[in-house]
Specification:
The complex is a heterodimer. By secondary structure, chain A is mainly α. Chain A is about 75% helix and about 0% strand. A 3-stranded antiparallel sheet of chain A has the order 1-3-2. Helices cover about 75% and strands about 5% of the residues of chain B. In chain B, the strands form 2 sheets. Chain B has a two-stranded antiparallel sheet with strand order 1-2. A two-stranded antiparallel sheet of chain B has the order 3-4. Chain B is mainly alpha-helical. Classes of the chains: A mainly alpha, B mainly alpha. The interface between A and B is large, with 68 and 71 residues.
């Protein structure tokens, strides 16, 4: 299948279109809320919340007997909020570190959910408890109804982000200032974290527990590399999330054995990798390049100074010196390449039997460097 | 009890002990979530090991998985060191990616093999006694032998490097200054976590490994300030959770690992509430006691200040405390009553007089302030 055919299938094939729009909604919502989580060092909160949702799903099913996505999402959401309250209170009232409490909430809530689910089905074998959907999601089985539910929940969450934009921004960057303005920062904190729960709940059906955490971390972490502005970062994060969602849905439609969840995660991981390497300013590649250039420049200058100092032992400042002698003085590093660089700049010339000397221009340049500079803003 | 029941409980106890030992150090070092990451990515190690050897029973799988655990740790640190993402985000980026690769590899190349992803995540303890291994002439459950060996390795490592681990955990700077390599200790510990996660996922599944590693250790941390005791308590609590969890699952006819995690969670909650000094109830009681004690001290200082002055008749009256110290009448009465019981003040016709003990307290408190 060509890329073009793949893209047209997005428009023509009903199943693919449903799945892709579901994962795109998930990507946008988790991208927006994940940006805040990443900035607030709560990247692992999503992981804990998605696991903690299981008992909520089980209890919602137990109480209503309904398997409709809205009911199960509501149960998952309530369990998630409960998990947050436990997390906040235990962390602030004991000496336990936050990550310990995260680990406990994640695993104990999940274990309890597993207990309830297997108890409900009177079948202690966890493998048959229909947990697969919860663990890995089943994007391929998304129905139009599911996508509508996702869109409504997600739309409300995004709307609230828009309404409380200024407050959330303040919370993420300068909580104390917010408090000093008289804003109820604790309440704003709980609201934002609750919206994070909404994002988790939306994602569960599509990508499952294990991979939901990636959807909350990765788009934000990728977007952070490209910009220092919160607004742009959030938009970019939403775009990356949606891109990964649609790409994942398309790629997994190609072959059997490619479950949507993991493919989406690999797509977003790829976006993160590219961002880390190539984002302007912060990208690692540019950083390496800068370092390499600086090192080269410093080495070339050191070689220039060394030839000059060695020549000053002679009457003639352009006295030629052997490369090996320069290597001995300059220490490690590619002296020959530095010499060639100096030659290109017209500061040094090669002689026979691997000797080099400075040109008149080179002597002047070295003298200028070695003289104590008077004005400090020189170069 | 049938022998299978005893064996399942034994396996549970051994898993709990093997997990709690490195778990204590994870909790103390603030790396609890690393166990979550490692317990997921070992799956990739197992899959790669399986694709290379073609044998699910091969011991190389354990090595592959442990190596993948260490790779997870170093990738996380590599990412963290670029300073482009924060530590928690680094964990959250690395493990889902590696885990996704594992899931895709399994569904593409290892279909039909006994290597279900949900089995890895959830485990199934009920089947553990059926998988047996011949050792020293007796057939023992495979999980029991494997986890026993892992628990032993953990114990030996911790005993052998106890001093180093303790120092590196509580004073990393001093440890480095004394010439212990923090990196070596760190990776040694992470190696233990990886091996334990591989061994334990078969029995309890990788998500509940986290419960066994973190919750008993965190509960023990609320009970004691001594590392030796914390290790003992963590193992004890884990074992208690394992046995209690087994019987709850037996009664409810539900999943054993989930039940064990639940009981461990309940044990943690009990410690959280009732721990002698650091429990929520104890600290609430301490705060209340401190409030009353502070108020009594305030009262004696107030009385001392006005004692023997003309305004003492007005100031040193019970009903005046509301105006002066802004105490509600009921609270003021409570303070005076308690101070009276402690022999700090005497109440005569609504006017308050310091006793010698009360005067002594007020003077020492004032002297302390200076």
């Amino acid at each position: 299948m060509t890329l073009l055919e793949l893209l047209t299938s997005l428009l023509t094939d009903h199943t693919i279109r449903t799945v892709a729009s579901g994962t795109a909604i998930l990507g946008v919502v988790s991208g927006v809320l994940g940006s805040f989580a990443v900035l607030r060092k709560q990247s692992l909160l999503g992981d804990a919340l998605s696991h903690a949702a299981l008992p909520g799903v089980a209890i919602a099913y137990m109480l209503t007997g309904s398997k409709s996505p809205a009911v199960l999402m509501l149960g998952a959401g309530i369990a998630g909020v409960l998990a947050i309250l436990v997390l906040l209170n235990v962390t602030s009232r004991t000496r336990l570190k936050e990550d310990s409490v995260l680990g406990i909430v994640l695993s104990v809530f999940f274990g309890f959910g597993l207990l309830l689910l297997t108890f409900l089905q009177r079948n202690p074998d966890a493998r048959q408890a229909g947990l697969n959907t919860f663990l890995f999601g089943q994007a391929a089985t998304l129905l139009t109804r599911d996508v509508q539910t996702m869109a409504i929940f997600g739309g409300v969450a995004l709307l609230l982000v828009l309404v409380f934009w200024k407050e959330f921004k303040l919370l993420s960057f300068d909580r104390e200032f917010g408090s000093s303005l008289g804003l109820p920062m604790r309440g704003i904190d709980i609201l934002l974290t609750t919206l994070l729960v909404v994002a988790v709940v939306i994602g569960l059906q599509a990508v499952g527990v294990v991979l939901m955490s990636a959807m909350l971390v990765a788009p934000g972490a990728a977007a952070r590399q490209w910009t220092d502005k919160l607004g742009r970062m959030t938009l970019l994060s939403a775009f990356f999330g949606a891109l990964a969602g649609v790409a994942g849905a398309l790629v997994s439609s190609l072959g059997s054995g490619l479950s949507t969840g993991p493919v989406i995660v690999l797509c977003i991981s790829l976006i993160v990798l590219v961002s880390l390497l190539f984002a302007p300013n912060r990208g690692l590649v540019w950083n390496w390049l800068r370092q390499w250039r600086n090192r080269n420049r410093l080495r070339t200058e050191a070689v220039l100074e060394n030839i000059y100092l060695m020549s000053s032992q002679h009457a003639d400042p352009t006295h030629p010196h052997a490369v090996t002698a320069l290597e001995a003085v300059s220490g490690a590093g590619n002296v020959r390449r530095s010499l060639e660089e100096l030659q290109r700049r017209g500061l040094a010339v090669p002689h026979s039997d691997k000797k080099w000397s400075l040109t008149a221009e080179g002597v002047r340049s070295a003298q200028a460097r070695l003289q104590p500079t008077k004005d400090t803003d020189h170069e | 009890m049938s022998s299978a029941q005893i064996e399942i409980q034994l396996i549970g106890i051994v898993v709990a002990a093997a997990c709690a030992l490195p778990g204590v150090f994870l909790v103390l070092r603030g790396m609890a979530m690393m166990s979550d990451a490692i317990s997921h990515t070992v799956l990739l190690g197992i899959v790669l090991g399986f694709l290379v050897t073609g044998d699910l029973e091969s011991p190389w799988l354990i090595f592959g998985a442990a190596a993948m655990g260490l790779i997870t740790v170093s990738l996380t640190e590599l990412l963290n060191r670029t300073k482009l993402v924060k530590h928690d985000a680094a964990i959250g980026l690395v493990f889902p990616a590696l885990f996704s690769i594992a899931v895709i590899l399994i569904s593409r190349f290892a279909r039909g093999v006994h290597l279900d992803t949900d089995a890895v995540l959830l485990g199934e303890l009920a089947f553990a006694p059926f998988d047996r291994l011949l050792l020293f002439g007796t057939l023992l459950p495979r999980s029991l032998v494997v986890m026993g060996a892992i628990a032993l390795v953990n114990l030996v490592f911790i005993l052998a490097f106890y001093k180093e681990l303790k120092l590196a955990t509580f004073d990393a700077g001093l440890a480095a200054a004394l010439g212990f390599s923090p990196a070596l200790i760190h990776y040694g510990l992470m190696g233990l976590v990886s091996i334990t996660a591989v061994g334990a996922f078969d029995a309890v599944g990788s998500i509940l490994v986290v419960a066994f590693m973190v919750a008993p250790a965190a509960a023990a941390y609320l009970l004691t300030d001594k590392l030796e005791r914390m290790l003992l308590y963590a193992v004890g609590l884990g074992a208690l959770g394992a046995v209690g969890g087994y019987w709850m699952a037996h009664v409810m006819d539900a999943n054993i690992a989930g039940s064990m995690a639940t009981i461990i969670g309940v044990l943690f909650a009990l410690c959280l509430l009732f721990a002698p000094q650091r429990g929520l109830l104890a600290s609430a009681a301490r705060r209340t006691r401190q409030r009353w004690e502070f108020a009594q001290t305030m009262l004696t200082i107030h009385l001392l200040h006005h004692e023997g002055t003309p305004e003492a008749e007005v100031e040193n009256r019970l009903d005046h405390l509301h105006d002066h110290l802004r105490w509600e009448p009921a609270f003021a009465r409570g303070v005076v009553q308690r101070a009276d019981e402690r022999g700090l003040v005497r109440l005569e016709n609504g006017s308050l007089h310091l006793t010698d003990a009360g005067r002594g307290l007020a003077t020492t408190m004032l002297a302390d302030k200076r």
